[in-house]
Write a structure and sequence with these properties.
binds nicotinamide-adenine-dinucleotide; binds thymidine-5'-diphospho-beta-D-xylose; Rossmann fold; three-stranded mixed sheet; alpha/beta; globular; seven-stranded parallel sheet
């Protein structure tokens, strides 16, 4: 199988490309990535000499780049997106552009030829906050942040190409991923790297929001299973069933890094902060025989170890674009936080 992996220089995309070469001998990959602040060529260092690997710098909103990248590919896995909820609250424009319009451009090129599958990687955030119970694939979408709304738009658009033109599309809705190469704006890598540097850990609100933590390799294996086994027109939830409050995640990070508890700061909440996500993954388990394998403590230990060994990788990021972002997002919040707890 020859895959086009869009957004392959980001966190999940780069882990996925490594996974393809590790677990699927004979498969080859083209990556198309715009290399935004979140995309880093060095994330692909491990695979750049692999058989048939090709990297193209380009935007999924640009039909010419997309046509060049899709040439000769049997299937597309679309990871390319703006992905950080807090940034979408500051400015939604790039989210609508990439996460919706980018999907349209990809779909238009995809349907010009007969191809195996278009896998649109979506998120559990499209269901909105789920106070009780769990979300099934047939449940109504209720996205509540500009990020979640853009992702919902993208997946609905992709699926409309299946309904309207019979283009083979599958949508996945994954829960919160964590693991190596995650940009340190997200909760787990931000707190691990801050803990390692003795910096405050800014917990939003009361720290009792709940997320389902999925180790990135488990997510990648689910996507590979879908590419091999799923028929078109399907939607799958991909979660680990490992629900923790942000306080619990923070405690686990403090324990794993050996940092002191007094680094924790309760800061102003994220506007519209979803309280809880929870996925019903029966379909993935029963239809495709997939189940997340990595217990949270084990995945977190591997992740902490990776950030310990790859200080260069995140120090470069934290001293670049991220520095200004962090100041804008956190300095006021930390000043107002009323001391350590
Ligand atoms: P990321 O932010 O680490 O990486 C996104 C990648 O997309 C980057 O390499 C970036 O350069 C690239 N990109 C952005 N705009 C582009 C454009 N216009 N054209 C081409 N490339 C572009 O994101 P991630 O955390 O790896 O997430 C990957 C996908 O998985 C996203 O679609 C996201 O919505 C989805 N997802 C993520 C999570 C999670 O917990 N991280 C959970 C569920 C679903
Ligand atoms: O500094 C922080 N303090 C804090 O309390 C940050 C960055 C986050 N949080 C909280 C907000 C959330 O309740 O931690 C939780 C996780 O936050 P993020 O890492 O920003 O992830 P989330 O908002 O849950 O969205 C993620 O999961 C689904 C990804 O960013 C999305 O791309 C994915 O689709």
């Amino acid at each position: 199988m020859r895959l086009l992996v869009t957004g392959g220089a980001g966190f999940i995309g780069s882990n996925f490309v490594r996974g393809v070469y590790r677990w699927k001998p004979g498969w080859t990959v083209t990556v198309l990535d715009k290399l935004t602040y979140a995309g880093r060529l060095e994330n692909l260092d491990d695979v750049k000499t692999e058989e048939g690997f090709r990297f193209l710098k380009g935007d999924i909103c640009d039909p010419f780049s997309v046509a060049e990248a899709m040439e000769g590919c049997d299937a597309v896995v679309n990871f390319a997106a703006e992905t950080h909820v807090d940034r979408s609250i500051e400015d939604a424009a790039s989210f609508v552009r990439t996460d919706v319009e980018g999907v349209r451009v990809l779909m238009e090129e995809f349907r010009r030829k007969d191809r195996a599958l278009f896998l649109q990687v979506s998120t559990d955030e499209v269901y909105g906050s789920v106070e009780h119970g769990s979300s099934k694939e047939i449940h109504k979408l209720d996205p509540r942040s500009p990020y979640a709304a853009s992702k919902a738009g993208g997946e609905l658009l992709a699926m409309s190409y299946w309904t309207t033109y019979g283009v083979p599309v599958v949508v996945t809705r994954a829960s919160n991923n964590y693991g190596p190469f995650q940009y340190p704006e997200k909760l787990i890598p931000l707190f691990i790297t801050n803990a390692m540097d003795g910096e405050p850990l800014p917990l939003y609100g009361d720290g009792m929001n709940v997320r389902d933590w999925l180790y990135v390799d488990d997510h990648c294996k689910a996507l590979l299973r879908i590419l091999e086994k799923s028929g078109p027109g399907r939607i799958y939830n991909v979660g680990a069933g490992q629900l923790f409050t942000n306080r619990e995640v923070t405690s686990a990070i403090l324990e794993a890094t050996g940092a002191p508890r007094n680094l924790v700061r309760y800061v102003d909440d994220r506007p519209g902060h979803d309280r809880r996500y929870c996925l019903d993954v029966t379909l993935m388990e029963e239809e495709l025989g997939w189940k997340a394998e990595t217990p949270f403590r084990e995945g977190l230990a591997m992740t902490v170890e990776w950030y310990r060994r790859n200080r260069n990788w995140w120090e470069v990021i934290k001293s670049g674009e991220f520095r200004e972002y962090y100041k804008t997002m956190y300095s006021g919040r930390l000043e107002r936080s009323g001391g350590y707890r």
